[in-house]
Design goal:
Blueprint (H helix, E strand, L loop, with lengths): L11 H32 L9 H19 L1 H22 L12 H8 L3 H27 L7 H8 L7 H11 L25 E3 L11 E3 L4 H12 L12 H6 L1 E3 L10 E3 L6 E7 L5 E7 L4 E5 L6 E5 L5
Antiparallel strand pairs: 1-2, 3-8, 4-5, 4-8, 5-6, 6-7
Helix pairs in contact: 1-2, 3-5, 7-8
Length: about 325
């Protein structure tokens, strides 16, 4: 699947394609001139339109773009093949770690493929093309569903965590950082999935009561309480549901009140009247507290200062 079309089956299939392409290019140029002339006369209300510079410029730009599409279609297709082949080669070389083992087909299969005639090899070439496109699409899906910590601010926050921080609290912050910049805000969005939720990013209807986006269709994600719940659900292996599945206020009731001086990474913070919630992530280089939360205004999981957060609580998870 990493072989170029020019080298497939010794180039015989590609030679046929080039011949067909050259014939179709001539036909395409003829049709282009014909439709260009028809388009000009159909869009002109009178002969005075031909004297307007913007009228001529608009049709001239359309003609140039159409000519490039007809004349460069083969180059565009080969570029797509090259990109797909490069992605597949990269994915295959990265499987199983940085050192990969060369993979070879059994000799019987190689002999059977090389023995195919021109017509019989065309379906094989098409199958290979579809396979390369499938692997390319799946590669992008895997990249989108990656739970590695790739955001610079998240990595820096983890680097500054206290050395003596308990494993439970460290797990909370690390798990929260995995979604930074990757999951959008969705009113009423909840998830009880260990790891990446396949629904994230798919178009869903917002049904949260009182939310300004209710009734609209948006990429599915999490709200602030759903984000906090997903974090604690994942670090506990699904055994702990923060706030017993309720919203921000319910989560707050399952926390012990503490002061800002007592706060540690992994504690929860709340807006007044429990209108928003976040997780304490640590401190920046200036000693300012950093909060990880799924923000509607940022439409993503973000790391910010404590602006807006007025109350702090310690989840009962740490004492259970």
């Amino acid at each position: 699947m990493t072989q170029t079309p020019q080298n497939f089956k010794g180039g015989d299939v590609w030679t046929v394609i080039i011949g067909i392409h050259n014939a179709l290019v001539g036909v395409g140029y003829g049709l282009l001139v014909l439709f260009f002339a028809m388009g000009i006369f159909q869009s002109a209300a009178s002969f005075r339109d031909f004297q307007r510079p913007e009228f001529a410029l608009r049709h001239f730009i359309r003609f140039i773009l159409a000519k490039l599409a007809v004349g460069s279609c083969m180059e565009i297709m080969t570029a797509i093949f090259s990109v797909c082949g490069g992605i597949i080669a990269t994915v295959m070389s990265g499987m199983g770690g940085s050192v990969s083992t060369a993979a070879t087909l059994p000799g019987e299969i190689v002999t059977a493929i090389e023995g195919l005639g021109l017509l019989e090899s065309i379906p094989l070439w098409l199958v290979s093309l579809l396979g390369s496109l499938f692997i390319t699409v799946m590669s992008f899906i895997l990249l989108l569903g990656d739970l590695s910590i790739s955001q610079g601010d998240a990595a820096e926050l983890l680097r500054r965590l206290p050395v003596d921080l308990s494993p439970e609290r460290r797990a909370v912050v690390e798990t929260a950082c995995k979604l930074v910049g990757k999951v959008t805000y969705f009113g009423g969005g909840k998830s009880s999935v260990i790891g990446w939720d396949s629904r994230w990013g798919t178009l869903r209807k917002v049904r949260a009561d009182g939310n300004s986006t209710t009734g609209t269709y948006r990429p599915f994600g999490l709200d602030c309480s759903g984000f906090a719940n997903w974090v604690f659900y994942n670090i506990s292996g699904g055994s702990y549901i923060l706030g017993h599945g309720g919203g921000t206020h319910t989560q707050h009731t399952y926390c012990t009140p503490i002061t800002w001086a007592e706060t540690q990474p992994g504690d929860l913070v709340f807006y007044p009247n429990d209108t928003h919630a976040g997780i304490v992530g640590g401190w920046d280089e200036s000693g300012n507290i950093q909060i990880i939360h799924c923000s509607g205004s940022h439409n993503n999981v973000v790391i910010t200062g404590k602006a807006g957060f007025a109350i702090i609580g310690r989840p009962m998870y740490y004492s259970s």
